[in-house]
Amino acid sequence: MSSVGAIAGRVERGSLDFDQRPLLVFWETTRACLLACKHCRASAMAEPLDGELTREQGHALIAQIAAFGKPYPILVLTGGDVLMRPDAYELATAASALGIPTCMAPSVTPMLTAGAIGRLVEAGVKAVSISLDGAQAATHEGIRGIDGHFDKTLAAIRSLVAAGLRVQVNTTVMKRNVDELADVAALVAALGAQMWEVFFLVGVGRGAQMAELDPRTNEEVCHFLFDASRHGFVVRTVEAPFFRRIAGWRREREEASGRPATLAEVQAAFRLGDTYARLRNRLDEVLGAGRRRTAAHTVSTRDGKGIVFIAHDGEVYPAGFLPLGVGNVNERSLVEIYRDSPVLRQIRAGAFSGRCGVCEYRDLCGGSRARAFVSGGDPLGEDPGCPYEPKVTFPAS
User: Fold this and answer.
1) Could you tell me the end-to-end alpha-carbon distance of the chain, in angstroms, rounded to an integer?
2) What is the CA radius of gyration of the chain?
């Protein structure tokens, strides 16, 4: 098992205190990128922005991450396109040398060559994530904005897998590609990727122009993702923490019955509609029944709880999709910011309003803090992307 997998296993057993340390530190090393994706959180551009952390500041940040102590957080070097930084491999090598599990999220551009992949391995990178936003060239390229990008993305994933790297496929789900999810799952399995991370669109950056799914469809997609996790790869979600509630429901039901539920049983039990039926039928067509044991990732992290994001200029946010600064690593240490920020402490305490505040799943799930902020201006508000009506109510104060 890789270092990343080993830490994830320890978290599943509840050994990390998210009040003291995050599981994942995302560092937006640069905003520069050769792509112009229509849903880009960072509104990436061809050249780096002024104020980007220097080489020396980058090494200082890595030292701050190490100061959390062991087990170290997982560091994800992202962008923009991380490979647009001249010192990207040096930074990865430095973090790996300290024992920090280091992952990278490069864009599929002419910079991701065979030589670059070799340098990732030499730098000690444990896992790499690649974005694939459709099962057809027209869909993926319509989002990514470059002709021929679909075939290049599939080739890049194959090359990374062949190099021995753990590969995670990232897919942002929205109205324009939701019906292709089962076929994307089939590609993830066929390409040999170990993880599939599905991002539920939040309207920030250029993503503000794209169409998010409605709450009912979010619920149905999460049921489908639970089914997809039977097919040899781990399934995770971003900005859809309610996936954990659904995975818990499904596992309880299957433990009681002693077998996976059929499509008709899931539909009847959870009152699901046509989106789930279409995706589940297609999944069964392209991948079969799957394994009995699922690989649905259900660690109770959320924006600001177990997750923290550092922007290109050192500003710290609860997550990449939550544009609410809580400090800057050039002024205070990341350890202090993460542990002491009032906003982050409230998020970790589950001090939410609305439905999220009275929900019996507010610790396991807690709702998307990014979606709450973008939709209502309050990072502690309820998540409008979740349709669940809590069964627990607290007396009025």
Assistant:
1) 49
2) 20
203 to each of 98, 169, 366, how far by Cα in Å?
36, 21, 19
Q: Please tell me what DSSP assigns to residue 319.
A: B
To which residue do tokens 């640069």 refer? 30
CA distance 107 to 33: 8
CA dist., res. 164 & res. 157, Å (int): 11
pTM of the predicted structure, to 2 decimals: 0.91
**Cα–Cα distances in angstroms (integers) from residue 1 to residues 128, 158, 300, in the given order:** 15, 20, 22
Distance CA 349, CA 146 (A): 43
Each residue's pLDDT expressed in tens, for the chain with a length of 397 residues: 333 444 444 444 456 899 999 999 999 999 998 876 655 544 455 567 789 999 999 999 999 999 999 999 999 999 999 999 999 999 999 999 999 999 999 999 999 999 999 999 999 999 999 999 999 999 999 988 889 999 999 999 999 999 999 999 999 999 999 999 999 999 999 999 999 999 999 975 544 455 889 999 999 999 999 999 999 999 999 999 999 999 999 999 999 999 999 999 999 999 999 999 999 999 999 999 888 889 998 899 999 999 999 999 999 999 999 999 999 999 999 999 999 999 999 999 999 999 999 999 999 999 999 999 999 999 999 999 999 999 865 544 4
User: HSE of 104 in the Cβ direction (CA atoms, 13 Å)?
Assistant: 30
Evaluate whether 305 touches 18 at the Cβ level (below 8 Å).
yes
Cα 393 to Cα 397: distance, rounded to the nearest angstrom: 12
List Cα–Cα distances, 234 to 2, 90, 126, 207, in angstroms: 14, 29, 16, 26
Angle at 104 between CA 107 and CA 340, to 5 degrees: 120
Q: For residues 55 and 16, what is the distance between their CA atoms, to the nearest angstrom?
A: 30
| DSSP per-residue string spanning 97-129 | HTT--EEE---SSTT--HHHHHHHHHTT--EEE
DSSP 205: G
3-state secondary structure of 320: coil
